[in-house]
């Protein structure tokens, strides 16, 4: 068991609690950087896909896991990020400007949409945001002169300082680009969590009444959460566009929204790790199923709805047996080893919570 | 002593029910002022009026010359009014330390971009907040619980953490909604000393709602007795306790 002997307030402020965890993450990043020399192009593409989903997951995690606002409309923001980035590039903007601009635009639009939406709570907010997902499809079709509607768009070549990056011809460069964005987003997320705004997010999630009594402006905080969440999601959407190569109005359907929400629930709500764990499940599940089918010998018979069915079952099992998601399970296993042999079964039992009043609403 | 909080002819109606009826009282700077009364007398409603969760139907509320009715709930905290809740409203999925740091939110002077980049200024501010919070932790003896999650803490400790969160905001006026409810005899005794120290050492004015008459008469300078949202009696604890109208409200006519 590691004991943190704290000698200054910096101990609680800095990114890593001790040298050991710094080392673990440093090794992880080194492995991630050298991955293109180890993996073949197919699996490198799959890992890239995991990272892109993880960025999108971080975006939704900030809103749902951190601030407690469920959204089923994030596919719309993926679409907005994707279309705006590629349209900016078609106007001749370089990638390094178009990409952040797409993120900022998505964030601003997200904030504007949030202003009326944050008056809603819980399930009502989820329903309102479903409308967004559905509307996005129609808006893309209606705005055909800009978006090319049903026929869709093709992602152009990315050029950064003369280096050409493309998903198919240079999968390694594209992977590094995605990795860089992932690390930056994770770092920004982590920084928010250890600063006043991140704590205000958690405060709004756990008790709006006392958050406002402590001087937290509820509407402004929720709008900020929406804005940052949508900006990160927009970046993920742009990367998804480059990853897919071609996309149209059906690429970012409501199913993507639902998958994204399921992903962060399975991964573990309210943790950065959860977004990554969930992304691994979402991105690898289809491959895993088809490989299993080959192994079992299902032949070329397609089973309709298999993926969705398995995914749904996993979600149900998690909600029943491990509401904290994969991250929660991971923590339990870690604590079990750290405390060995002193871990007790009831250590993780949730204590019954005391009466909470909602009547001030 | 100057008047800090002034409530003039405040009235609040929920449909046909008059929760607060033409209530007028004022709290002086540096005193401990208690509100007592039977259940449903409107004590907590008065608190919710001051923290701007409810809009009064009529009347005025001023704090140190500022009209509170012009402000939203979060802007009330900016003036230096902090409160606790009757049913403990802590942030359950955060540690004690994080809860107390949320109390510092009104002193936040960094913006979103700075926080995302975690600039040196943010780090400096974090340390400053932490120092302020540590003072509160020392004051309330919360050291063993610093990194514990609220969800796993016993009731009595949560009550103290909530007091700590209010103190961490560095208030001028502290609203305590039943600070001793659900506490053991010893914990109530601790609470009494803390309230005394809060007033004497920190110079914070305290307005509290409390049922425990032992605590009320022990710490408060003045007591207001409420019944059906209206003032029944006001004065020193002894005066209020021997007031025939108060006895009648609590025990019924003829008991005196």
From TrEMBL, chain A:
Transmembrane regions listed in the UniProt entry: 20-38, 44-63, 70-89, 95-115, 122-143, 174-192, 223-246, 252-285, 297-321
Topology versus the membrane: Multi-pass membrane protein
Main localization is: membrane
Which of UniProt's keywords are assigned here?
Answer: Cell membrane, Membrane, Transmembrane, Transmembrane helix
Q: Where in the cell is it found?
A: Cell membrane
| The name this protein goes by in its record | Amino acid/amide ABC transporter membrane protein 2, HAAT family
Can you name the source organism? Answer: Shimia sagamensis
**Highest classification ranks of the organism:** Bacteria, Pseudomonadati, Pseudomonadota, Alphaproteobacteria, Rhodobacterales
UniProtKB/TrEMBL annotation, chain B:
**Highest taxon of the source?**
Bacteria
Keyword entries, A-Z: ATP-binding, Nucleotide-binding, Transport
Keyword Transport appears in the UniProt entry = yes
Give the matching InterPro entries. AAA+_ATPase, ABC_AA/LPS_Transport, ABC_transporter-like_ATP-bd, BCA_ABC_TP_C, P-loop_NTPase
- For whether the record's keyword set contains Metal-binding, the answer is no
Pfam entry (one): BCA_ABC_TP_C
Give the GO molecular function terms: ATP binding
The ABC transporter domain covers 5-253
Q: Supply the PANTHER family for this chain.
A: ABC TRANSPORTER ATP-BINDING PROTEIN, CONSERVED COMPONENT OF ABC TRANSPORTER FOR NATURAL AMINO ACIDS-RELATED
Q: This protein is called what?
A: Amino acid/amide ABC transporter ATP-binding protein 1, HAAT family
